[in-house]
Each structure stands twice: as structure tokens, then as C-alpha cells.
Design a protein that fits this description.
Order of helices and strands: EHEEEHEHHEHHHH
Shape: globular
Strand order of the largest sheet: 2-3-1-4-5-6
Structural class: alpha/beta
Mean pLDDT: 94
Low-confidence stretches: none
Number of helices: 8
Strand content: 15-25%
CATH topology: Pyruvate-ferredoxin Oxidoreductase, domain 3
Number of strands: 6
Oligomer: single chain
Largest sheet: 6 strands, mixed
CATH superfamily: Pyruvate-ferredoxin oxidoreductase, PFOR, domain III
Number of domains: 1
CATH architecture: 3-Layer(aba) Sandwich
Length: 189
């Protein structure tokens, strides 16, 4: 059975790194894995999505409308924007975090209220938590992607591989300690 995971967020949040670490772990677990990434803008602030599909045999990384088993949103509005991709009964992991678009920053629009509550009304299995705040508490907000990855690994029940070693292979040594703490924090959400 093939599993489909859709990562969504904003450029600069580390979505691609998190999906690459997941892909490496899935390969080491013996799965066939396909990954595809889409950048909305070639700079920080644009929408970014990554699709990861894994199973015994996977022919395409593409996830159709209503086919994602898990939607992992690095920002709340992105969860709303991509919710149509989640299958009925799927799992939604949400970073309870706000990144304001240019129209919001300029006062032309307002950031929507009660997003998490609205998502919980639409999706039965929602896990929302403050990954950005958790990362700041560890010393660097950039580690929010690894916290979210840890929560995803736990949600998928992916044991049997040393995720900490895979993490160390993908990041510079000076960041190992912080990111190991972040991965542990995510796995314990």
C-alpha cells in the first residue's frame, strides 16, 4: 500500500530539507520512494510544497486531489490552502504559526482568525502544535522543520531506522546538537 505525504509551507521554512531527510529514512527502511518539490516563488516567502510517496512500488511522486494520507503544514494558512489534497480520514499536522503575506503586512488584508479551530471542524484527525515556539525555546526558530519532521515520523510510526544518524548526514556538524533536540521534541509532541 502506497502512502502519500504532502508538505506545505512558505519558502525559507526548511520544507525541502525535512522531506529529503524523510525520503532518506524511507529508503533505508526498504521502501520505494518518489519525491517532488514545487516552489511558488524562487525566494523566501513564496508557497512551497513537497510531495513524498512511498510503498512497495511507487510509480509517481504526484499526489492528486483528496489523495494525501498526511498533510503536514508548516504554516496555518498553507494548511487551509492545501486542505483539498487531504483524503477523507487523513491526518493533518499543523504548525500553529503565522507568516504574514505582503497584502497583510501592507494592511490591505487581514490574517484569518481561528484557523486551527476551523481546520478541526473539517478534519477529524488534526494535530496542531507550536513548532516554531518550540524551536525558539531550543535556541533557533529554523529548527521548526525538524520538530515537524519528528512529529511526522511519530505519526507514521516509522521505527527501524536511526533517524538521528540520517539527520546528521544531511546537516552541518555545528547544527547536530540543536537538530537532534528538535527531532526528539517533535517525536514527543
Amino acid at each position: 500500500m502506497t502512502k502519500s505525504i504532502l508538505f506545505v509551507g512558505v519558502g525559507g521554512q526548511g520544507i525541502i530539507l525535512a522531506s529529503k531527510i524523510l525520503t532518506e529514512g524511507l529508503l533505508k527502511l526498504g521502501f520505494d520512494v518518489k519525491m517532488s518539490e514545487i516552489h511558488g516563488m524562487a525566494q523566501r516567502g513564496g508557497s512551497v510544497t513537497t510531495q513524498v510517496r512511498y510503498g512497495k512500488k511507487v510509480y509517481s511522486p504526484c499526489i492528486g486531489k483528496g489523495e494525501a494520507d498526511i498533510l503536514i503544514a508548516f504554516e496555518k494558512v498553507e494548511a487551509v490552502r492545501w486542505l483539498h489534497q487531504l483524503k477523507p480520514g487523513g491526518t493533518l499536522l499543523v504548525n500553529d504559526y503565522e507568516i504574514y503575506s505582503l497584502p497583510v503586512l501592507m494592511g490591505q488584508e487581514s490574517y484569518p482568525d481561528q484557523i486551527v479551530e476551523r481546520l478541526q471542524e473539517k478534519v477529524k484527525n488534526v494535530k496542531a502544535f507550536k513548532a516554531a515556539q518550540m524551536a525558539e525555546d531550543l535556541g533557533n526558530i529554523k529548527a521548526q522543520n525538524i520538530i515537524l519532521l519528528g512529529a511526522l515520523i511519530k505519526a507514521l510510526d516509522l521505527d527501524g531506522v536511526d533517524w538521528f544518524e540520517i539527520l546528521k548526514e544531511q546537516i552541518p556538524p555545528k547544527l547536530h546538537a540543536l537538530n537532534i533536540q528538535a527531532l526528539e521534541a517533535g517525536m514527543n509532541v
